[in-house]
Amino acid sequence: MYLSAKAVAIVLVTLQFGAVHGQQPKPMILADTNRDGIVDDSDATDRAFWTPSRGAIFLPNVSDSLKRCPNQDLQGNPISNHELASCHDASGHLLLEPSLVAPLKTIPLEVSDDTISHNYATPDAASERVRLFYLNDSSANPAETASWSFVDPEFTFNASHVQAGITLGIDGREFVKDFAKWDGKVWVHLDVHANGTVIFDVVELKVAPVLTHHHLQRVSAFVSTAANESEPLVRTAERQVFEQLRGKGVGGFQPEGGRGGYGAREINAYGNLKTILPYTSKSGVKYPAGRIIHGKHYDKMLAEATIAFLEGQELQNPLSLSLDGYSSVTLMTAHGGVRAISSNGSVEGSFSITKEELAVTVDELLASETFHEVNAYKQRHIDANLGILLAEIPILRDHVIRIPSLFKAPKVSSLSSLTETVMEGEYLLVSFSPAAINGVVLGNYYAGMKVGFVDDSMSHHHTFGEVHCGSNTFRETDVAWWE
Questions:
Q1: CATH 3.75.10.10 domain residues, the chain
Q2: 343 has which bridge partners?
Q3: Are 13 and 41 in contact (CB under 8 A)?
Q4: Which residue from 431, 432, 454 is spatially nearest to 441, judged by alpha carbons?
């Protein structure tokens, strides 16, 4: 995930609420409710309940800005995956990355010198997942860690703080992992204890969602495996995200839990998770940030923790297809995009095959009943997936580009460590030759793009991967997803 934050200015509001003619002082806590990057009196209305169109947003501070999180223990042994993912800027009580904190402000109150106030977060599910800080001094530099102090749930502010107004900040320890346990919303309370009574105010915020990129977002960085390496280009789970990519402005997050777990199931490798371009479905549902599309193995879905995490973000509700039955590219056209889908077609021409298959001629291949049965089987699933897409996305069948592809059923023993048992009457298939297009589009030709054809037979295809297994992209993030 690639994190970024716009500079946020805090305007010290000068409104004063005094006890005039016996009037009770009225406390007020403000956040950037109107999302203009400034906390001021324009945020004073409709603060108590967050809505998609109005309400402050805050970020989880899950980067490692100071590179303090170790990869090994004191004996030089790799720490566990859980320990590695659990260490980040928000895993303690110091505000190590102040630029990612969302500002709040209490309005100055004219109160007696024995007055105290209390700031805290509710409900419990939220208070465990967020952190509150206060700026020690109005003259302190808000960009420095030393300028901020953690607000313990039992911490109280004295009358001088209440009279001057308190500058607060909030960040998160994690994203929404399971909507049923926490929906990402938090109420930040201001309780003022004065003259034997408690007067209070509240503002509601929500944690920013994790959004997957789509191909209309400009690429800011292309990430690939190192060239000319003699060691196998195989990652150890997701450790590289935390060991190599994470840093200032770049965070890593590992959803955990669920009965399914992750294990070694290939379906959880994310190679078949893409993003449909922003669209409005044929049923009228809007997806302004695009929509996640992912594969499944018949009734075998992604790990429960992954599904709960993706659905918990709300904005890109996942659409499931039968695994490996599609590939997606983007063309700039009047209707917003063209789907490219693999299709069993002509076997004419040359393509890379294994040594064992080199002895097989085209005529022998065409005479093979298994070859025809396997590809007819695959075509049925491709057609079914295409039907799902066309029922959902407002594009015409004529706008679909069919790319000829052939498939084969490999020996089960060669995949047994990566996949589950294949049910009777079904096939576990792989591409007969390296895939022609695999989701990464570079260049600027013809319809605004250049398609690169990469021979990945030896580097990836022989180990049942393709180009996307060794590449990734960071894309622009300054998108107002709530609009």
A1: 219-475
A2: 404
A3: yes
A4: 454
Is 219-475 a CATH 3.40.50.1220 domain? no
CA 127 – CA 355 distance, rounded (Å): 59
Token output for 317: 């509700």
SS3 content of the chain, % helix, strand, coil (to 5): 20, 25, 55
Retrieve residue 319's tokens: 């659409």
Q: H helices of 223-368, where?
A: 239-240, 304-312, 355-358, 362-366
Residue-by-residue DSSP string for 232-268: -----TTHHIIIII-BTTBB-------SS--TT-GGG
Task: Give the residue range(s) of CATH 2.60.40.1700 domains in the chain.
Answer: 9-61+97-207
CATH class of 9-61+97-207: mainly beta
d(CA 342, CA 438): 11
One digit per residue, the tens of pLDDT, for the chain of length 483 reads: 333 333 333 333 333 333 333 466 799 999 999 999 999 999 999 999 999 999 999 999 999 999 999 888 888 888 888 888 899 999 999 999 999 999 999 999 999 999 999 999 999 999 999 999 999 988 889 999 999 999 998 999 999 999 999 999 999 999 999 999 999 999 999 999 988 899 999 999 999 999 999 888 999 888 776 666 555 445 455 677 888 888 888 888 887 754 444 445 567 767 678 899 999 999 999 999 999 998 877 677 788 888 899 999 999 999 988 764 444 434 333 344 444 555 544 333 334 455 666 677 888 888 999 899 999 988 888 888 889 889 999 988 888 887 777 888 876 544 444 455 566 667 777 777 654 444 444 444 445 556 666 677 777 767 666 666 777 788 888 878 877
Nearest to 213 by CA among 285, 320, 316: 316
